[in-house]
């Protein structure tokens, strides 16, 4: 089976690592990196650390408006899909790279498979909501991380080709956790008690008031806030004149590598984030999460009591972080860390049937 995988942004490298490993023995994987993320700390480090295969094609698209970025990716991908004629095009999550891969594959002959299907924030102002809905509705095979996502697809009329696989990010997390050693933090001292923060969502970085309220909330917390900042957030803090306030309120650092990040999540008293992936990683690592958004696609973590939605209101953030505690029970929400095995065996079955 020939599988063409489209990746481009940080969370996709984490997701693809698990599936790539399962594909490598018996199948041909053509890895396409769109270049959506290009800074070494958002891209190269993941390839090194997670032993992802070197991209066969690096499109080098880079940052641009949504339309121009997506269109540039599609133009390149169309030619590659045409030349390589893969059996399957595999896309992950909800980024512009995902959408570009999905639209190209849907109008071509390969089977389009979407990993992380069926997630919805129901917030159409998020570019990710547009990307994932369109991707799901174009896909032949849809790998849902849990039963809620499968039910969502059914409500939207998608019943064919849907499989509950579990979450591939959990596969990668379990693997790296086994490999982590103690000497990982040479560059800075990790305090005994801290809150770990990440912020990069367009809604929070493109609105000064929201970003300022988040920084003000961090400033009011009595424990240190470790803040590995996405370049988009650094640019916004500078643009809004908030950089000094942010550095006074938090220990702002460059993005860290995946192993370091997982360790920071595990050791934190609480995670405050607007990331999708980090909400789940906090859950897997038994760290309560406060989500700096009004909605989440990972709704089961809220229902289970491990995650609290607070938006970007200063008082709500402070109160939720102070109140954060482990709930008594931890349900099994997104599988047991063998999602990639399930995905690859389902792909094999489908491609065999099609032959
Ligand atoms: C993208 C995804 C988002 C995902 C996130 C993961 C879309 C619409 N958004 O958001 O769903 O959660 O990746 O981190 O696909 N930049 C750099 N260096 C880089 C990449 C980006 O400095 O290597 C800066 C540029 O100024 C760029 C901005 O970040 O304009 C935004 O980058 P972009 O890839 O458009 O969106 P993200 O916010 O990274
Ligand atoms: N991550 C990382 N280093 C960091 C911040 C995040 O390795 O400094 C990892 C994190 O463990 C998760 C992924 O990046 O697996 C999440 O990416 P991001 O929050 O940018 O995207 P989202 O999940 O919101 O799409």
UniProtKB/TrEMBL annotation:
EC supergroup of this enzyme: isomerase
Keywords: Isomerase, Plasmid
UDP-N-acetylglucosamine 2-epimerase domain span: 26-347
Domain of life: Archaea
Keyword Glycosyltransferase: no
Record keyword Lipid metabolism present: no
Enzyme Commission code: 5.1.3.14
Entry's Gene Ontology molecular function annotations: UDP-N-acetylglucosamine 2-epimerase activity
The protein, known as: UDP-N-acetylglucosamine 2-epimerase (Non-hydrolyzing)
Phylogenetic lineage: Archaea, Methanobacteriati, Methanobacteriota, Stenosarchaea group, Halobacteria
